[in-house]
Design goal:
- There is one protein chain.
- The N terminus and C terminus are likely disordered.
- The chain starts with 16 loop residues before the first helix and ends in a 5-residue tail after the last helix.
- The longest helix has 31 residues.
- The chain contains ten helices and no strands.
- It has one domain.
- With 304 residues, it is mostly helical.
- It is globular and about 50 Å long.
């Protein structure tokens, strides 16, 4: 019997069976939608014909490979784990959900509908649906993460991930986007920019306005051992792994086609970017699958 003056025990943020079921369905539908978009795109059946240059289409092809063989399976896996009540389900869900928001916004808006032939506008509602579903899944998954069942990392592990996120943000800002922006501001317009200026500015807006600030914020939060950053890192690292793999696929396809924009520096850099993101995700998510993770997390003694 609880004493009247006993302090109330904080409630664990456990999703209700109904929310868990709907989140699982959303993840599975999202995974199937991502796979369908990839199969319908130029990499496979070419049903969707994007209004873009050959260089931009090669990027779509590379991204479709990663989406079909990595993003879609991860989304379905997260749905199955969520349906079974596994604590890793909502955590893993944040990666493909954020990927969908990022990717399908670009596919829906990045085309040059007047300059290039195509039919992608006929699939706008499909892209919109994946964009909205990704956002809804991200919100529900975030609110369904049971913080009490997340293994507590050591300060050293926090610092490692924090430093890597800051280094990745610096690579995107200084190594990739800033030099390209300086070229445009100096009116040194490249062939790739002239072919798809809308894509250029849309990517710059999303990377410099969303991706880089998120990486910097979470990276600094981890270096300062903030509790909110330990939860947020799952979404950022999951996105890092999936989108990094997608971009690596893009540059590899471009490089194999002899695209001058896919320099050896960019190709090696983005492949390393992808491998690093996948390695981080494995290291971060692996403790969630340990049999004793839940009990150890309640005691706060799990160390990586």
């Amino acid at each position: 019997m609880t004493r009247p003056d006993a302090p109330a025990r904080p409630r664990s943020n456990v999703a209700s069976p109904s929310r868990r079921r709907w989140l699982a369905i959303g993840l599975i539908v999202l995974g199937l939608g991502v796979a369908a978009s990839s199969l319908l795109g130029p990499a496979w059946f070419a049903v969707i014909d994007y209004h873009a240059s050959d260089g931009a289409l090669r990027q779509v092809v590379g991204g479709d490979f990663a989406a079909l063989f990595l993003v879609a399976p991860v989304s379905v896996l997260a749905g199955i784990l969520t349906l079974r009540g596994h604590p890793a389900g909502p955590v893993i869900a944040t990666g493909p959900a954020v990927f969908a928001v990022y990717t399908y916004a670009q596919l829906a808006l990045g085309a040059d509908f007047i300059r290039y032939p195509g039919n992608s506008e006929q699939f706008f509602l499909f892209d919109l649906g994946l964009f909205v579903l990704g956002g809804m899944v991200a919100i529900v998954a975030w609110n369904s993460i049971d913080a009490d069942r997340i293994p507590e990392a050591s300060p050293r592990f926090d610092r490692v991930i924090g430093v890597i996120l800051l280094a990745a943000a610096a690579f995107l800002l200084i190594g990739l986007h800033l030099p390209q922006l300086l070229e445009v501001w100096r009116r040194e317009l490249t062939e790739a920019y002239l072919a798809d200026p809308g894509v250029f500015w849309l990517v710059k807006l999303m990377d410099l306005g969303i991706v880089v600030p998120a990486m910097v914020g979470v990276g600094i939060g981890l270096l300062r051992h903030r509790a909110w950053a330990r939860k947020a890192q799952y979404a950022v690292v999951g996105w890092f792994a999936l989108l990094g793999s997608s971009v690596a696929g893009m540059v590899v396809v471009m490089r194999s086609a002899g695209d001058p924009e896919a320099t050896w520096f960019n190709t090696i850099g983005f492949v390393v970017f992808a491998v690093l993101g996948l390695a981080l995700a494995v290291a971060l998510y692996r403790p969630l699958f340990r049999r004793t993770a839940g009990a150890d997390a309640d005691r706060g003694h799990v160390q990586r």
